[in-house]
Specification:
Bound molecules: adenosine-5'-diphosphate, magnesium ion
Mean pLDDT: 87
Oligomer: single chain
Shape: rod-shaped
Strand content: 15-25%
């Protein structure tokens, strides 16, 4: 049975208005071993016949039999299998992958052919040698002469190792010397194949042709056998070959690296898009992290980089325990004197010799700062600090005092309890004060708590306020020299004193300090005046009693236990991990920066919806940009894809390849972007404060998003690649791409 048989085959080219005849009622059959020359003037239907025979183009009437099997019912994928297993192509305009080397062009054909992996290299080199291109094997195809290109194409056609080789004017663009070489090569390989050569220079094929077909006006007008040919054994029916994912992956990588300019351009685009998206994504993660958090009542001054740890049994932590916590991989360092941080409410800094007083939000160790985070220096000495640049009147070199601000503070110099020199300003407006290692690890000589509480007590005394029976309120003073007749005695403004004695009344004492709640005491005697008065005096014993009670309130609320340690972590994620990694039955861990409000769940839900929409919108917007920009690039590759298909890559393999390329580019872009961010975050603390909130799982989500977008983009390109037939693409002139 003959390999090919045409019976009254007709092919028409239909366009919007016209139908033109490509060929009409062509009947002929072909056998393995033949070397067929097709001649005829231009437009006579030679290419049409060849394209139909090779399955590059369909036909309308008649029947083409392949080993006796009808092909009129063939599907696209049947034709793909047919082309990939049975037909090797040589075109007038070469159709070589310009960005590949000679070797890569040949190798590609072996790969899609499923040629044994370990023998591919050797086979490719053999074939290149056979066409005499060994010295050019690593040259890019675009750099070859026409004759060399055609020889490379021949090696590629041989690599495919198909029973049929069709060549449409293979020497049309070649000089006579190259033409001779190419024809001789074609002949050489034709021994066990069916070779069909279209030419209008019949003399070139004459020495080799076993048969001559002449066409005119779409029909065969002459078909003569010229010489005997060696009959070949019929090859068995060939199976469609599947290209493995690994091979496709290799080909995709090769495509990426064989076009460095295009790749770099695409990468820059990807990196921009991935970078922007990652920043938006992490800002959403950060927003989620900060959403619904409440200020800690007890330790309002503790930032998210610091946790407080104590033993549940109240005992101090042993140095072995502290060392163990220090070696926890989430922990930067441990400070044994947590109270040195002043974890109080209403802490403020007071610019010395000025009226400038600033609210301090958090106290932290300078260890979490890097050099790039500050203008100036990081603190080294015990009395050096870094403060936020938010306090715009504080400059490097200023001396500040730490002070407590009464809630109704109305100006004037505050008494401060420790003095520091500002050596640097935190570029971010975190309203945090950062202490030096020297300060936080100092050997505590004096009891700083006692100093501190004396200081607070003094402040309370200065701002004591009193209310009688919820009606009259006045400020209280203590005059050490006064001998008072009553426990509390009001002072009238005009000195004319008319006293009304009331015994055993409840009196409320307040201070301007928010952190000492109201004290209610029964007072034995109050000397009350009629009419106008401006304030009151209080007996020493009663004053002490009120202050003691207030201090008890204060201490029970805010005092950091001496046995409590401060654990420094780099960011919230590490803090969270630290809590999970520590034995909660032995230790009590406070994370004051992570207290959630009752509404948090609901708020997170709403925020999730909004940021989800935002991210999806942003993702599609950014990818629309990538798509618009890379559309032209993909269009310019259309020809390459058509060549891939003509060599035998089927639609699904090619689709996988395009998707893989997109995904690989995306992942390379992602990795580069992340490495970039890794280094940039040291220079730009804004980036770090965003990325600090990203968990490993967030990066996984990002990778999945980019994977999805890569696949999506790949599939969109696929549509473009496949909306035209191979021959349509291959016959398009360059300008049409
Ligand atoms: P040859 O290869 O012998 O020069 P072709 O097979 O290319 O001839 O063309 C045969 C006829 O079909 C010509 O009249 C040509 O104009 C027409 N034809 C070929 N390709 C197309 C096409 N894509 N669209 C319309 N007409 C075509
Ligand atoms: Mg032609």
């Amino acid at each position: 049975m003959k390999i090919l048989k045409l019976e009254n085959v007709s092919k028409y080219y239909k366009s919007a208005e016209t139908v033109s005849v490509g060929m009409q009622n062509v009947s002929a059959s072909f056998d393995i071993g033949e070397f067929v020359a097709i001649t005829g003037e231009s437009g006579s239907g030679k290419s049409t016949l060849l394209n139909v025979i090779s399955g590059l183009d369909g036909y309308e009437e008649g029947e083409l039999y392949h080993y006796g099997e009808e092909t009129s019912h063939y599907t696209i994928s049947d034709w793909e299998t047919y082309r990939s297993s049975y037909v090797g192509f040589v075109f007038q305009n070469y159709n070589i992958i310009d960005s590949y080397t000679v070797y890569q062009n040949v190798l590609f054909a072996l790969e899609v052919q499923g040629y044994p992996k370990d023998k591919r290299r050797k086979r490719a080199l053999e074939l290149i040698d056979r066409v005499g291109l060994s010295s050019h094997k690593n040259h890019k195809a675009s750099k070859l002469s026409g004759g060399q290109k055609q020889r490379a194409v021949l090696a590629r056609a041989l690599a495919k190792d198909t029973p049929i080789i069709v060549a449409d004017e293979p020497t049309g663009n070649l000089d006579s010397e190259s033409s001779k070489q190419v024809m001789a090569l074609l002949h050489e390989i034709s021994k066990d194949k069916l070779v069909i050569v279209v030419t209008h220079d019949y003399a070139q094929v004459e020495p080799y042709a076993t048969r001559k077909i002449r066409m005119h006006d779409g029909t065969i007008v002459e078909d003569v056998e010229l010489k005997e040919f060696e009959k070949q054994e019929q090859p068995v029916k060939l199976e469609a070959k599947k290209v493995s994912w690994l091979t496709l992956f290799k080909i995709s990588l090769r495509n990426i690296f064989s076009t460095p300019k295009r790749t770099i351009f695409m990468l820059i685009l990807q990196i921009l898009v991935i970078g922007i998206f990652t920043l938006i994504f992490s800002s959403q993660v950060k927003a989620r992290r900060e959403l619904g958090l409440m200020d800690s009542e007890t330790y309002p001054q503790v930032p998210e980089t610091r946790l407080l740890v104590e033993r549940r049994d109240g005992e101090p932590l042993s140095s072995a325990e502290i060392d163990k916590i220090k070696s926890n991989r989430n922990v930067l360092t441990v400070y044994e004197n947590a109270h040195l941080f002043h974890n109080n409410r209403n802490l403020s800094i007071n610019l010395l010799n000025s009226h400038h007083n600033f609210y301090v939000s958090k106290t932290d160790s300078a260890k979490i700062l890097s050099k790039g985070d500050v203008k100036g220096e990081l603190p080294k000495e015990i009395n050096e600090v870094v403060v936020s640049s938010y306090y715009n009147t504080i400059k490097v070199g200023d001396v500040i005092g730490l002070a407590f601000t009464p809630i109704y503070y109305y100006g004037g110099n505050l008494e401060h309890f420790v003095e520091f020199k500002v050596v640097g300003l935190d570029k971010l407006e975190r309203r945090t004060i950062y202490f030096s290692e020297a300060y936080l690890t100092q050997e505590i000589v004096a009891d700083i708590d006692v100093n501190l509480y004396n200081h607070i007590r003094q402040n309370l005394k200065d701002s004591l306020y009193c209310n009688l029976e919820d009606s009259v309120g006045f400020e209280l003073e203590y005059d050490p020299n006064a001998t008072l007749l009553y426990d509390i005695q009001m002072i009238k403004s005009d000195e004319s004193q008319t006293y009304v004695v009331e015994n055993n009344v409840n009196v409320k004492f307040h201070t301007y300090y928010e952190h000492t709640s109201t004290v209610i005491l029964e007072v034995g005697s109050v000397g009350k005046v009629e009419g106008e008065f401006y304030g009151g005096l209080i007996k020493k014993e009663l004053l002490d009693q009120v202050l003691d009670l207030s201090m008890q309130n204060y201490v029970s609320k805010y005092k950091i236990d001496k046995n409590m340690i401060s654990v420094e972590v780099a960011n919230f994620r590490k803090g969270d991990n630290f809590i999970k990694s520590i034995d909660q039955t032995i230790y009590k861990v406070y994370y004051p920066a992570n207290i959630s409000s009752p509404l948090q769940k609901f708020m997170l839900f709403i925020q999730g919806l909004i940021s989800g929409l935002l991210l999806v919108g942003m993702g599609f917007f950014l990818y629309a940009i990538v798509h618009a920009v890379s559309k032209n690039i993909m269009a310019s590759r259309k020809k390459d894809f058509a060549i891939f298909r003509s060599i035998g890559t089927n639609k699904s393999a090619l689709a996988k390849m395009v998707v893989l390329e997109q995904v690989i580019m995306n992942m390379i872009g992602f990795v580069i972007t992340m490495i970039g961010f890794y280094f940039l975050q040291y220079r730009f603390s804004n980036i770090r404060t965003l990325l600090d909130y990203m968990k490993f799982s967030d990066y996984i989500v990002l990778v999945l998003i980019f994977l999805f977008l890569g696949v999506w983009l790949g599939l969109r390109f696929n549509k473009k690649v496949f909306n035209q037939s191979v021959i349509q693409v291959l016959t398009l002139s360059k300008e049409e791409f």
